[in-house]
Amino acid sequence: MRESVSRGFYLSSRAPYGYRIIRVKDGIKERTKLDIEPLQAKVIVSFFNDILSGKGLIEIVRELTKMEPAVTKVEVGTRILFE
Questions:
Q1: Pairing outcome for strands 79-82 and 19-26
Q2: φ, ψ at 48 (rounded to 5°)
Q3: Is residue 61 within 8 Å of 81, Cβ to Cβ?
Q4: How far does the chain reach from its first CA to its final CA, in angstroms?
């Protein structure tokens, strides 16, 4: 497992927001890696730019709500801010 991770393979069944899982050949095995999901990546860049510009969390969430369908759910820790 440690070797797979050090070689850039992704071992979970669910990709984090902003990424998608792709399958790649590794010799005779097929393994998974993460690839950027372009539409979701734009949302993430926008989110961080909003934070850096000083916008508050509620204002950012309202803007994310308008960006459907790229954003379906926002979780902060264990709290779901909107679905």
A1: unpaired
A2: -70, -35
A3: yes
A4: 34
pTM of the model: 0.63
pLDDT tens for the chain, 83 residues long, are 777 777 777 877 788 888 888 888 888 888 888 889 888 888 888 889 999 999 998 998 888 777 665 555 555 555 555 44
Q: Is the Cβ–Cβ distance between 57 and 72 less than 8 Å?
A: no
Q: What is the DSSP string of 18-38?
A: TEEEEEEEETTEEEEEEEE-H
Partnered with residue 22 across adjacent β-strands are 33
Strand-pairing partners, residue 79, are: 76
Location of structure tokens 């730019």: 49
What amino acid is encoded at 72 in this protein?
T
CA dihedral 49, 55, 57, 60 (to 10 degrees): -60
